[in-house]
Every structure is written in structure tokens, then in C-alpha cells.
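Try this one yourself first.
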């Protein structure tokens, strides 16, 4: 599954970055990010770093996060595109509601790309072999 998230970060303070996500637990899920500027023009993210985190509550220590990823290798950086893959092993113990945030370090500054609630639902097919 791919979730297409079109993000704007050059004028982030003018943009609502809240986006809720529903994914399947025990499945591999891919979140597809496209970075655009305020004119909807693709931004080259070569050399950037993307951070993805899932927590129970905002005040939870980063080291205790359910998932904590740093992505430095991108799908198509010159076209502002990358994927965040959540493997079935990473989502195996996640069931229910959490919060997430995606940030980018671009030109030595941090910008929030997307944040909100993330819900992991149970598959109705229990036999996965």
C-alpha cells in the first residue's frame, strides 16, 4: 500500500500539515512523500535527511518510540520523492492508535512535513502463510 503525501515546507507555517493515516498491522506499508515548494514545484531533496517517528504520546522519549527512522537514501531525490517503508516486522506489534511525525532536515533547517494520528488495524485474514 502506498500513501501519497504531497508536502510543502518552504512556507510551512502557512500550511496545515496534519494528516491522519490508517495502515494495516503485520503488513508492509509504504508512505510515499513528494516534496513541493509553495508554488507546487518539485524540490530537490538530495543531501537531506527525513525523520519518521511513531509514539504513544508526544512527551514520550524518542528512544522509546514505537518506530524511529532516519532516511538518507531517497527513491528519486531530484524529483523530491522518497518512500518510508514500514515492514511487517515493524508493524507486527502495532495495533490501535498512535501519533506520528515526519520531519525533513533541508539546508540545515528542520521542517515538519506531516503529523497526526496513525491507526494500525487488524487484518481480517488471519492466515498469513
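Now uncover the answer:
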Amino acid at each position: 500500500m502506498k500513501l501519497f503525501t504531497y508536502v510543502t515546507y518552504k512556507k510551512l507555517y502557512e500550511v496545515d500539515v496534519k494528516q491522519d493515516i490508517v495502515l494495516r498491522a503485520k503488513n508492509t506499508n509504504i508512505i510515499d512523500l513528494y516534496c513541493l515548494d509553495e508554488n507546487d514545484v518539485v524540490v530537490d531533496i538530495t543531501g537531506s535527511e527525513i525523520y519518521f517517528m511513531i509514539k504513544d504520546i508526544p512527551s514520550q522519549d524518542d528512544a522509546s518510540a514505537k518506530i524511529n527512522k532516519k532516511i538518507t537514501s531517497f527513491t528519486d531525490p531530484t524529483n523530491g520523492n522518497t518512500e518510508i517503508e514500514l515492514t511487517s516486522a515493524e508493524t507486527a506489534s502495532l495495533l490501535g492508535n498512535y501519533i506520528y511525525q515526519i520531519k525533513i532536515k533541508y539546508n540545515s533547517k528542520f521542517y515538519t512535513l506531516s503529523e497526526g494520528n496513525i491507526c494500525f488495524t487488524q487484518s481480517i485474514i488471519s492466515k498469513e502463510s
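Discussion: The mean pLDDT is 84. The chain has one domain: 2-121.
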